[in-house]
Design brief:
The complex is a heterotrimer of chains A (about 525), B (about 300) and C (about 290). By secondary structure, chain A is of the alpha+beta class. Chain B is mostly helical. The longest helix of chain B is centred in the last third of the chain and has 39 residues. Chain B starts with a helix and ends with a helix. With about 290 residues, chain C is mainly α. Chain C has a single domain, classed as MetI-like (MetI-like fold, Orthogonal Bundle). Chain C has 12 helices and no strands. In chain C, helix 4 packs parallel to helix 8. Classes of the chains: A alpha+beta (about 525), B mainly alpha (about 300), C mainly alpha (about 290). Chains in contact: A-B, A-C, B-C. At the B-C interface, helix 1, helix 5, helix 6, helix 9 and helix 10 of B face helix 5, helix 6, helix 10 and helix 12 of C. Chain A: InterPro entries: Peptide/Ni-bd, SBP_5, SBP_5_CS, SBP_5_dom.
Chain lengths: ~525, ~300, ~290
Amino acid sequence: MKTILMTMAATLLAGTAFAQSITVGAANISDYLDPGRDHSNVGSQFYYNSFDTLIDRDHSKLEPEWVPALATEWKLLDDTTMELKLREGVKFHNGEDMTADDVIFSLNRMYQATFAPYLVRSKDRLSNFAEAVKVDNYTVQIKVERPEPLWETLVSLQQVMIIPEDYTKALSGDPEVAEDGDFEAFSLAPVGTGPYAISEFVPGQKLIYSRFDGFWGEQAPLEQATVIRIPETASRITALKTGEADIVTNIAPDQLDLINADPNLKTEGSATALFHVMIMNVNHPNLTDPKLRQALSLAIDRDLLNDALWLGKAVVPSSHTMEEMGELHMPELTTFEYDPEQARKLLAESSYDGEEIVFDAYPVYYTNGVLAAQAITEMWAEVGIKGRVNVSEQWTGSSPEMMTRSWSNPMYFADPFGSFGVMWAPDAASEGAGRFNTDEEYREIWDRFRFSADLEDRKAAYVELMDRIKQDPPVLPLYRPFESWGMHQGINWKPQPGHIPYVLDFRAGAISLADS
Amino acid sequence: MTLYVLRTLAKMALTLLTIITLVFFAARLSGSPLDTFLGDGLTEEDRALMIEYFGLERSVWHQYIAYLRGILDGNFGLSFMERRPVAEIVAERIGPSLQLLGSAIALTLAVSVPLGVVAALWRDSWVGSAVMALAFTGYAVPNFVIATFMVLIFAFVLNWLPVVGNGTALHFIMPTIAMSGVLIAALTRFTRNAMLDVLGQDFMRTARAKGLPETVVILKHGLRNAGVTVLSVLGLQIAGMAAAGNVVIEAIFSWPGIGELLVSAAIIRDYPVLQFGVIAVAFAVVTINALTDIAYVIADPRIRMAKG
Amino acid sequence: MTATTHIPSRVGVFGSFWRDANAVQKAAALIGVTLVLMAVLAQAIAPYDPLQQSLISRLRPPQGFERHKPGFLLGTDELGRDVLSRSLFGLQLTLGLALAGACLGLLIGGTLGLLAGLRRGWAEDVTMAAVDLQIAVPFTLLALLILALFGTSLTVMVCVLGIAGWEQYARIVRAEVRKITELPFIEAARASGGGQRYVALTHVLPNIVSPLVVQFTLSFSNIVILESTLSFLGLGVQPPTATLGTMVGYGRDYMPTAPWLVIAPAALIVLITFSVQILGDWLRDRADVRLRVR
């Protein structure tokens, strides 16, 4: 019985075992694919296989080591201008040649955004970038407003990956003009220059990468990679077992033993460059007292959460800092800690009078999110704070009624600006949502941090920022979650330290299949 | 007869309009649909831009009229999440759902009609009791429980059957069984009762008296008459239960159908999708009901007379 | 499960009920009573607080298995809570919600059906149109919509469960009322000057009690299944509170490694629906009520 069924299954599911093709079972698949407008944890999985930036980095290394990609060389002409020589002979997946026109089109759609979704990304990380100008067919200049300490970093962002101009403009309406409709259409039929073309895309359901023979660099190792959506954890693991998937994403630590116990399977994982955080609405009438918020934060035993929910594999930070930030990694700061005694003391001194503190959590979006929320309210109870978990898909982070909730602060690029900054800079996401306030002093410190040319000045300013956060806390980073992927033994793949979180890198050197 | 058909159709249209209206206003009553979509790192300004993008700044009445007008043009609006026409998204999903529904109904009929007949004929022996006990069990075990345990046993432990999507014939086995469980239980009971009703009727006695073999009596006269009842049950109950089953089963087996779509739309509050989904399914059910009504009347002249 | 024939159309006394029952029906009755007792006494018999977490002893198997935690008979869940205690409280909440929902449905449907039956005219037209509407939309979808729109709280859940079955009551009551009001003795009562309300209270209500009891029992198990399904899909009550359906839904992620999270609540759901189904069918046979599909 079993043999017959398995033979049938093998025949029917043909392809996966023989050719250089794999199937990935992902917890989520994007509803659209446009590297410019997207910065979600779901989307970041998919862009690197199909799109290139002008400058890339060696993703096998933690420290940034810039390498040529669509630009072969680059230099600063002055404080505010970078000139880049473009690689010649690069083709888009649709056969068009990539020239300076495509590059300035791609960059300016972000730098001078008019399409609402681009505008958002442009404001939170690219606001210093004024425009891109064509010098000749293979030379462009990028101009910034103020001297930029993070040139290469911000030129190698996912958001400024290069897309074809003519193709995009012709997608809807007037083929000579870039309209909103063009960008909407592009996000359903994306075209780039990367080693894999996206040969099929069913929003939210399925994505097929096919090797692009015209790729400018080393050929893709896989003929084809199909990504299918399997939202349920149990189903993903089962699909891995039945052979329906060769790699599955988002495996919680609780499930690792189960996969590793099977001799045909293995897991790879890492503490992802992202913090699961608890945010506190500093403007909620019940939470205006900083002492109460300090108590809420000090009451949480993050090491216990790590040991219990993550089997000790997550990383609990002492400050809003990550090792990816190189010189700006400052583990010596103690911005956040566990001290229930101090929490009780501050609570007694605070305005707190037994009010219920609601903790909002997404049901499944963050691994262990609901469990952590329930454990946190228990820890609050230990010091005398009455907490209640509210599980909902609703994003309450912009609501004045929100008290506390779970969120994440991903590293969008390897600089404190790319994780702390995008969320907590003046007028950035948190202040814009009305749950965090900045004053003149904070702005001045931020400005020094953002634009100082001297690294030491930036570090000093960041210390001051962290001190402000400690005194009047709007956020507590809980941990860097340990994210795992389950896969068959014959697949050599693991997350690379030089990537932003969740990237499924199937380029040459990043994945190989054992001959079996 | 024509009058009856026309009246059925008019009633159908009215029902649909009412459903559309209720669903639309209920959706607008419950606050801004955008809250869910302004996730990580969006600001109030972005919210304003999005509101304009989806035309949500207009009055509810404007939106309602625009929505109705859109429906007449076959335009059901844009999905908040995917930002493409809802009808397009639903169109992609309807095929897999119908395939699953079809296979579930086929399995249900194949299993429950014979079982029901057996249970009726041997109503006083252990065979009848055993069949009915089975039917009760089928009715009592929720389909998500059946599905969960089947996945554990046949996929996880034994590795016999695939669990994701609708790629091959093997993919149909578990979802079809899980979805049919409750349907088989229900239809077996209905068939049994309908057969019992029919078995006591005069024309059965007449048929027997005429010396027809028992099998012929049962199959030709009994089943054919009981079939009318079974048909009406199939149209009404089954459509409802199957739609309900679809929602859970598709979610469990990552089946790319309407049910799975609607559950995720409900969870992320993608109202345009949910609205259209409810309307589309209501349309299907109303149509099936109307057709069953008409078929019922054709099959049984007595009702035609009673209904006028 | 064969029906006993020729029994009076009124629900009899319990004693005769029990005597006439077969083994399966007796077993179902015992199970039902046990479940209700367990639910009612949850506070007294649960060994632990169902919300008490113990992060250091998560996912411990039931008594008798390796790594079990003494005192935790059915093991612990993903936050180290006692599965037995949670199941008991889950049972309480599931039964409570279903009872509240079924009562609400009975109240709405019964009232509308009574109005439609007694008043006729537009009241009847509107009610029957609403019934048709309710039938046109598969209820799970409607429930999805309502829960998506109004969020998940106990109140919303009870309302959802309440409107899940009202149309059945409305149809039964209306049909019975029409049948009864055409009987000679009601005509006589009316002729002798009894008002609408008088007629309704003295003659109609007593006569529709038994079909309603039967319908109530039958719909109860449907409501339990509906609630469990919605909770399973994550649209039910909020954690840390759990119904049986929620426990199955959340436990499913741990199915291969910790099946005890799912087995206890799933078994309880099946026991409820199974016993209620059999009791309902038994009542129906006893009351000799023909509950027609249409």
